[in-house]
Design brief:
Layout (H helix, E strand, L loop, with lengths): L1 H14 L3 H67 L3 H21 L2 E3 L11 E8 L7 E6 L2 E3 L2 E4 L1 E7 L7
Parallel strand pairs: 2-6
Antiparallel strand pairs: 1-4, 3-6, 4-5
Helix pairs in contact: 2-3
Length: about 170
């Protein structure tokens, strides 16, 4: 733009005037560029808002699908509770087992896996609640207080475990 201004100034000197016309032309070019930048900024803002809205809709629809798959399990649980009020212990146990199997299968279909708790303590997937002296290797998982789960590679809930501490000291 500076080069254009210098050219216009040289032309004005040669032609003997017309500075007002050249200045008006540059101002019009500036206004056109500024208007283009404003339109681009507005387009980007609209895109950002649309992308945010689409992301929110995607999350809503993903939750809707999961809820739709959970509803039959809720129905089975209600039937199991109905059997409990009728004092049918055998049917209650069967109903609860059925609900557990269906819920576990649903979670597995959606990529939820139980965290392995046999072996050594892993701070990335286990949460040690207590370290007890034991005859096994220090750091081994002795017991599971609460199962842990992953969704894909991400830990949703760490497994809460009791870990083997140093062996007990023998006084003697």
């Amino acid at each position: 733009m500076t080069d254009e201004l210098e050219q216009v100034s040289e032309q004005e000197v040669e032609e003997g005037g017309g500075a007002a016309d050249a200045l008006a032309a540059l101002a019009a070019e500036r206004d056109e560029a500024l208007d283009g930048w404003k339109r681009t900024a507005a387009d980007f803002d609209n895109f950002r808002k649309r992308a945010l809205r689409e992301r929110e809709e995607y999350v809503t629809f993903a939750n809707e699908r999961l809820v739709a798959e959970l509803l039959p399990i809720l129905d089975d649980l209600e039937r199991a509770l109905q059997a409990a009020t009728e004092h049918e212990e055998a049917r209650l146990e069967e109903g609860v087992e059925l609900v557990h199997r269906e819920l576990a299968a649903l979670l597995a279909r959606h990529g939820v896996k139980e965290i392995e708790t046999s072996g050594m303590f892993d701070p990335h997937v286990h949460e040690a609640l207590v370290a007890q002296p034991a005859e096994v290797d220090e750091g081994s998982v002795l017991d599971v207080i609460q199962k842990g789960y992953t969704l894909g590679e991400r830990v949703v809930r760490p497994a809460r475990v009791i870990v083997a501490g140093p062996p007990p000291e023998i006084d003697g």
